[in-house]
Design goal:
By secondary structure, the protein is of the alpha/beta class. It is built from 5 helices and 13 strands. The chain has 2 domains: 70 residues, Ubiquitin-like (UB roll); 154 residues, Cell division protein FtsQ/DivIB (Rossmann fold). The radius of gyration is 38 Å and the shape is elongated.
């Protein structure tokens, strides 16, 4: 007797009515639209509040203080920063304003801050000019050893002039100073000291020879002082001794040149009172 094959019984779920699906989709759409509307409303509120605050007279810069300027006037700095007493302090972009200030050739550092509710403070550090360097074109070098602007006839023409350097001699981040430029800066540093025998203000020209070293033309008569490289503090001491000795010599009026390249063999070319002849003497 044969066996009957068991029948598999499948039960189908009752499909949801289409109307129920559309209700759910509609509810989701309404919620999404409400959320988007709320975001737009909040955004609009923030924009409106921002416009009200940044245009309010309550935050107008009634007082703008400027510190650290000696060469530049307050009005020049405010003009460079593009702020004035009509500016709303909350509408001023501090980072952009600082970049504007640093774009001025005479400004080395700049800070700007708000002082709520109606003031701003600007503090700058100006470059201090040290010398003019002739690189085919003339530039001004700061006391930090940086070229910060092209020299123009409107600038100070009494600064010492440096000849013999190249662009690659000047300071670069992470790069040590070249020997010639380091020698020039050391001479100026010694000249800036109190009671220096060779003050920077008396230096007219500095000539750089990469083989021989530094030669200075100084004082009213452009007298020559050859310093070579290295041992500048000791050479300045010897120079002071020589000048003191010359003052005690009745027949010596002044000197034409002093060669201090070697401390073991110093050569002085004096100018005598009775004769215009110049003698070379070793000291």
């Amino acid at each position: 007797m044969g066996h009957r094959q068991a029948r598999n019984h499948y039960y189908k779920k009752n499909p949801q009515p289409r109307s129920t699906k559309w209700v759910r989709y509609g509810a989701f759409g309404i919620k999404a639209a409400a959320g988007i509307g709320m975001l737009l409303l909040i955004s609009y509120t923030f924009i409106l509040a921002h416009d009200v605050i940044t245009q309010s007279d309550f935050f107008r810069a009634k007082n703008i203080s400027v510190q650290g300027n000696y060469r530049l006037s307050d009005s020049e700095i405010l003009r460079q920063a593009q702020v004035n007493t009509e500016s709303n302090i909350l509408s001023v972009n501090l980072q952009v304003t600082r970049k504007r200030l640093l774009a001025h050739p005479w400004i080395a550092e700049a800070e700007i801050r708000r002082e709520l509710p109606d003031a701003m403070a600007i503090k700058i550090t100006e470059h201090k000019s040290l010398a003019i360097v002739d690189l085919g074109r003339k530039f001004i070098v700061s006391t930090r050893g940086e070229i910060f602007k092209t020299w123009s006839p409107m600038d100070d023409d009494t600064l010492p002039v440096i000849n013999g350097l190249e662009f690659f001699d000047f300071d670069e981040p992470g790069k040590p100073r070249s020997l010639p430029f380091g020698a020039v800066m050391e001479v100026f540093q010694l000249g800036s000291k109190l009671n220096s025998i060779l003050p920077t203000r008396f230096i007219n020209r500095v000539f750089v020879d990469r083989e021989i070293g530094i030669t200075i033309c100084a004082f009213e008569k452009n007298q020559t002082i050859k310093l070579g490289f290295h041992d500048y503090p000791e050479k300045y001491e010897r120079l002071e001794e020589i000048l003191i000795q010359m003052k005690n010599l009745k027949d010596i009026k002044d000197f034409d040149s002093i060669d201090l390249n070697s401390l073991e063999r110093i050569v002085v070319s004096p100018i005598r009172i009775k004769s215009s002849a110049k003698d070379n003497k070793e000291v």
